[in-house]
Design a protein that fits this description.
With 757 residues, this protein is an alpha/beta fold. Among the domains are: 89 residues, DNA Primase, Chain A; 116 residues, DNA primase, catalytic core, N-terminal domain (DNA primase DNAg catalytic core, N-terminal domain); 264 residues, P-loop containing nucleotide triphosphate hydrolases (Rossmann fold, 3-Layer(aba) Sandwich), CATH 3.40.50. 46% of the residues lie in helices and 15% in strands. It has 28 helices and 23 strands. Helix 18 runs antiparallel to helix 19.
Amino acid sequence: MDTKELLDFEIYPKLDRAEAVKDLKPEDKGKYYVLNCPKCGKKKAFIYKTGIHLKCNRLNECGYSQSLWDYIQDTKGLSNQETLRELARLAGYTLPKLDGYSEEKAEEAREKSNAFEIALEYFKGELWGRGKEALDYLKSRGYSEDEIKGMELGFYPSQEETWDYLLNKVNSVNTVNSLGLKLKGMGETHKIGIPYRDPVGRLKGFIVRAINEADPKYLFTAGVKKDTLFNLHEARGRDTLIVVEGFLDALVCTQRGLEGVVATGGSSLTEAQLENALRYHVKSFVLALDNDEAGRNGTEKSLDLITRKGLRAYIITLPEGFKDPDELIKAKGIEVFKELIEKAESGAKWKAKSILSKHDTHTDRGFQDALHEIEAYQETLTPVDRDMLKATLRESLDISEDTLNEHFTDYNERKAREREEKGYRELLREGSRLLEEGKVTGLRELLDERLPELRAKAVTRVIAPYTLQALQEDIGQTRPGLKTGYESLDKLVTIPQGAITIVAGRPSHGKTTLLLNILLNMVRTYTDKAFFFFSYEESRRQVGLKLINILSGELIDERLNLIRLEDYLRGNRTGEQKIEEGKTEYKSLTKSGRLWVIDEPYFVDELTDTIAYLKERYDIGAVFIDYIQKVKIKGRYQTRQIELQRISERILETAKSLSLPILLGAQFGRDKEHADKVRLDNLREAGDIEQDANLVLGLYNEAMQKAQDRDETLRDREIDLRLTILKNRNGAVNEDVILSFDRPILTITERDKGHWS
């Protein structure tokens, strides 16, 4: 059995999720746990009791999403095998013997970890014993004895002495040898031992610093990973990292109460260090590298790495006369350094000034060279940073914003054409090969995958700040929400434009009927609009029949009214006035293109494309979809819940991009604990679709529920429906509206009003 099978069939089904994420303070909510989000810290994350992903509900603000495997691995700093064993332990499952792993090896790892700690204590003790020269050097840098102890600094004697001491304490040549404490190029002046810990704080090796200006300044034992920022374990969980060069600089900042300080160990941030930092959800960086030529070049290189990732960077320029943060802190104190951090310059502004300083912008050649370099740089910036860049250029070059925008637009369009052309050439080569091999399905999949990417590469529009003037203009152009046709409900809510409204109910409680009644209310209210009803549950024949039943309001047979109406239409009879009026109105609405009933089983992408097509040709009032759990999506997903999340996201994107109100029918699951009411939680098993909705209306049919509980047939003609506002981003929630349902004629009206009043 491979690792995936072990996880899917043996470990995940038995896994105690609450225990696995106990540090996130899980709260039991029935089918899922609510957690403190590892990224934003708010109690908005969740994991299903059968799920394998943690996700934050604040998707637009936070965006955290991570597999349980990755969460366990990252927070505990485990290897793949260690992660598997930890998950197995949490599931109470005994793993079979795995290649490369044994209890003996586990014991060796524990012995090695213990030996590292013994070595650290040895070095620390030696510093206060015979390490006077090293201790004097540290004190000369302004470190107090308490700070030196807090930084866990030590004195590194000769390699032979270290070996002999550890061998005497550990009594295992293999264990001591496995520590990798041999220093290549060991010099007489390399005496200050700095402990190196991995991102979760486990001691993995030592960095040994010279007590003079020896070259190299540092030597490293085998366990030190230069692709990880030093001191990252002290900065985990923070959105922003303060990046310095020196290891001691980072440690002393931490000792003096400045959190989030890490060290590169070199003159710039490396790509590997950046990638490893991003695993811990860092969003921005404050660069406080050395104030020399190497440091300035390193700042520029680091800034370019950060901006290419779409992240934000800020730059600290140290005062003249101070080479690095350590010197500044020694002379002026940590508070001065903190003030510099608060006033850090945006990366875009710093970069603009750096580019301009390299060119003589008073000459045409220098001006053009500077502008070309800036054009290439602005392409990688966020909108906020791009505005900062423009402001700096306007001040320095005396150039208008319109001129800058024109330059940037021309550059972006040229680059977009180049990317698009290159992409289409590559696609043509791959597509031609597949076609020659007769792999039509593969060609279709290739086109589905690559064409959206190529279209994205062709986008050149620069996103502008959303100013107050733009907001006021948009408000003036935005259509108001739609009325449902129920006065008591319309006092509390409107159906929002450019958003999703969910109308949810339990099976047979009248969800589809309510949607059809709202549809006809809107058709009659908004006489210049077209309305579309996509039915996934019933055929268009069934939906059309129900619509005529509602429009006519004619009672033929209290028990079998819909069947009798179908018989009437099948026989081409014309004797019933109300039915004839209903037929006439239905014919008028459909013939004029104001009422559409579609029962094609579109996949969600086909559905959204169809809605976009219709929007180009009709002035749409609203789109109804009945119901979301019946909609399918192409591709494979781990669970139906994830499928529904993707479906809901696609529909929401369509509503927003087309500025359309979309009403989704949804089915509640049975709630045994709260059988007498509906709750927002009842939609959770449907993939959290309520998160995408602006408005959620929950329908409860008490009479039907009682009949179902008794396994009886509901006989009453007129019954009450309770409609509860479960979610409303624009107003009241948890308010109830009582409507009257005349079951044979499928008509839902205000409780105290007659049909179509």
